[in-house]
Queue: 2 jobs
Job 1
Amino acid sequence: MTGSASAHSAMRHVPLRPFGRIVEAPAGSRISEIPVEKLVRWTEESRVLVLRGFSLLEKQEFADYCRRWGEVLRWEAGEVIDLIVEENPKNYLFASGDVPFHWDGAFVEADPRFFFFQCLDATPGAGGETVFSDTTAVYRDADPALRERWSKISLTYKTDKLAHYGGEVTERLVAQHPATGMPVLRFAEPLDPAVYKNPVYATVDGIDAAEADDFLATTAELVHRPEYCYAHAWQAGDLVIADNFALIHGRNAFTGPTTRHLQRVEVI
Ligand SMILES: [Fe+2]
């Protein structure tokens, strides 16, 4: 048996609820030992893949590894974004409050297929779980009348550029997953300027203006239902790969002081 084959047989796959999977490997395993095609398949099947027991990568190594999956999105700050909670941030992503649902890269030209996180430090029990909502399941459960209504809707999002993103974008609510072909919802929650440091404004096309607020509220309620959401409580050493088309994601507020440090890379 080769080293790589024995590493595979030592891995344990644990299904998460209501979706997702943890792959646990003996300490010191390398993510590069698993063929990328296999990891892509697991990610598409599970939508969120949590790898535990694997060695974390140096910053440049992390970007270079992700390049094996596809083109890496380059932000002004570089290919790897450090997510550390700050005292007085300009952008809510770096604050300790909640982060409403969105998909990554809405305000850049390219639509990332996957995003990768590695967790360098975490404070268990202090909140801040990353919450993923499976929009393929939300769509699956919608009745024909609702699907028909959704098919006519487009949303325009606007935000100021205070961190590594900003601008205006219009998207149809229902899009097609580029790999699986399944319908997905491109829904981001508007951010109230009274609550968030960098508000996101949403305007809705395809329904009566009078119904827009109700549409935004009911859709937000729907995607937050527990049967569609997996909340990831971070442990230092976690590597997480998520499907940025099938899912939208956000973050629970922190409930206490945290030293959490994540690094994130987006693959187009
Ligand atoms: Fe995000």
Note: Residues 212-223 form the longest helix (12 residues).
Job 2
Amino acid sequence: MVCERSEVFASACAIARAFPLFTRRSSASRRAEKKSVTVEFLLIGQNNGPMEFTTLKCLESATEGVRLAARIVDTPCNEMNTDHFVEEISAVGKELGIIPQIIRGEELKVRGFGGIYGVGKAAEHAPALVILSHTPEGATQTIAWVGKGIVYDTGGLSIKGKTTMPGMKRDCGGAAAVLGAFKAAVKQGFKDNLHALFCLAENSVGPNATRPDDIHLLYSGKTVEINNTDAEGRLVLADGVSYACKDLNADIILDMATLTGAQGIATGKYHAAVLTNNEEWEMACVKAGRKCGDLVHPLVYCPELHFNEFSSAVADMKNSVADRENAQSSCAGLFIASHIGFDWPGVWVHVDIASPVHAGERATGFGVALLLSLFGRASEDPLLNLVSPLGEDEVEENPERDTKRRRLV
Ligand SMILES: [Zn+2]
């Protein structure tokens, strides 16, 4: 790989994507020895000295994170059910010396997590809220990453069709990205409190499935009239962000999810859609995306005009919009935010990765690089600082391009 120092991180993550771990081809299992690929970096341009050992360690953590996320997303639900996902989280916890907090099955119901419980209760494998917490000494703020982990989405009783259901093993892409990024972030020395929350459920059908018209009480204390059981991601995430806010006292809550098919219409296959209550963070997400290769573009944030799409006569809100042609991806995100409250003073960022989570038949591990870059400033790692939105100013990096841009104005 021949590139400039500022492009090393994005390039390494891109290369990692090209070598997926998951396969069940019988020919692969017959091969005893594992194939190995050697990647060499040749730095050009400014700062083109040799690559430091710390840089290589960071690239190792980041690429491992990307490939872990992609492997989980590629693995079908008969192998990656909620039990297996909990095991994946526990394995990462063990490696980092963190004991996960696991709230599962009937305990979810008892403790008021009506969103996660309601979505997952029809499945053979119980739903779960799992939390990994990194709380270093000297931390100055608390960050929560909340991932949507629907290990399979049939749509529930509002069932999907035979052409729209295949691929729904990927509906856990947000949680997979949070896991991959958390592992890498902690390994590289994260200076602030960081909680990774995994909202795990299989949206299945059965006699115990949630029906359209059912009303659920979520962890926020708000009631939701279910009018579409296929709009389940926002229900599990609403519980996750409420917990981050009420129980973990987070200052910054970011949720990541394969939330809406409409995301692909709004921002396409290559850019995730970001919705946030904070303009600075909106810009930071876009910048971070350009630095790490996980591209991002903003959605309209306007709760005062959009949130009434969820109006219900008998509950605090419905879970699916009245008009599907009115900024659907924005509305879906607003549903989540409404459970921490639009007047909550903290930073809330929602990243919808429904389309970029895969490229054709393969998972991309999208989101891992984005989280590492976006929160790079909270890391001790020099490379993650460099690719953070506050890292080395773009103007300094490329004065010529900047001059041209200025001339256009
Ligand atoms: Zn769904």
Note: The pocket of zinc ion is lined by residues 153, 155, 203, 230, 232 (CB under 6 Å).
